[in-house]
C-alpha cells in the first residue's frame, strides 16, 4: 500500500517508522528538518519514553531534558514525568524509517492524489481534515496541555490544575486567559 502522511511531528514520524516496514510511505512536513517539533516542548512519563526509545535502540537518557521530582495534577497523576528533546526523537523516528520525507513542503491535496491511504497527522491545525467541532456533534478531541516556562532554570516540580476543558484550543495559556 502507498501511504501519504501529512505532518512529520510526533504522530507522523512514529507512523512513518511503524508503517514503512510494510508499506511505501511518504511524509510531507511544512517545517525544515532543524525546526520540526520545535513549536512546543514535550513531556511524558519515563515509562513511555523508555518504550519509544527502545524501538529506536536508544537509551531514554538520550532524549531526557528534565526529570520532575514530582508532578502534581488534579487532572491526572504522573510520578515519573520528564520533558524530552522532541526534535531529536522525531528525527530519529524519521531516520530509522524507510519513508521518503519531504521537509519544508506544505501539504497540498494535489500532492496526495496517488496514495492508497492519506493520514492527516498535522495535529490541531488539521491541514486536510475540517476543523474539530464541539462535543455535541460527537467529535472526540484529545486534550493536550502546553505551558510556557520563562526561566533560566527549569522548575523542580510541575503542577497543573485546569478548571475548564476547552476542546478547540491547544495552549494552556489560552485556557488560563479564558477563565
UniProtKB/TrEMBL annotation:
Protein name as it appears in the record: FAD dependent oxidoreductase domain-containing protein
Amino acid at each position: 500500500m502507498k501511504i501519504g502522511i501529512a505532518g512529520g511531528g510526533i504522530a507522523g514520524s512514529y507512523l512513518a517508522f511503524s508503517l514503512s516496514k510494510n508499506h511505501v510511505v511518504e511524509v510531507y512536513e511544512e517545517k525544515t528538518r532543524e525546526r520540526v517539533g520545535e513549536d512546543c516542548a514535550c513531556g511524558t512519563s519515563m515509562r513511555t519514553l523508555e518504550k519509544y526509545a527502545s524501538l529506536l535502540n536508544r537509551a531514554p537518557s538520550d532524549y531526557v531534558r528534565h526529570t520532575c521530582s514530582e508532578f502534581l495534577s488534579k487532572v491526572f497523576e504522573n510520578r515519573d514525568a520528564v520533558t524530552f528533546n522532541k526534535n531529536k526523537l522525531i528525527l530519529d523516528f524519521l531516520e530509522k524509517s524507510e519513508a521518503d520525507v519531504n521537509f519544508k513542503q506544505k501539504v497540498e491535496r494535489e500532492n496526495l492524489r496517488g496514495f492508497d491511504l492519506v493520514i492527516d497527522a498535522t495535529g490541531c491545525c488539521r491541514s486536510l481534515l475540517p476543523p474539530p467541532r464541539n462535543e455535541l456533534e460527537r467529535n472526540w478531541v484529545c486534550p493536550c496541555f502546553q505551558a510556557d516556562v520563562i526561566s533560566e532554570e527549569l522548575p523542580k516540580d510541575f503542577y497543573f490544575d485546569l478548571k475548564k476543558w476547552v476542546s478547540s484550543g491547544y495552549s494552556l495559556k489560552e485556557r488560563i486567559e479564558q477563565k
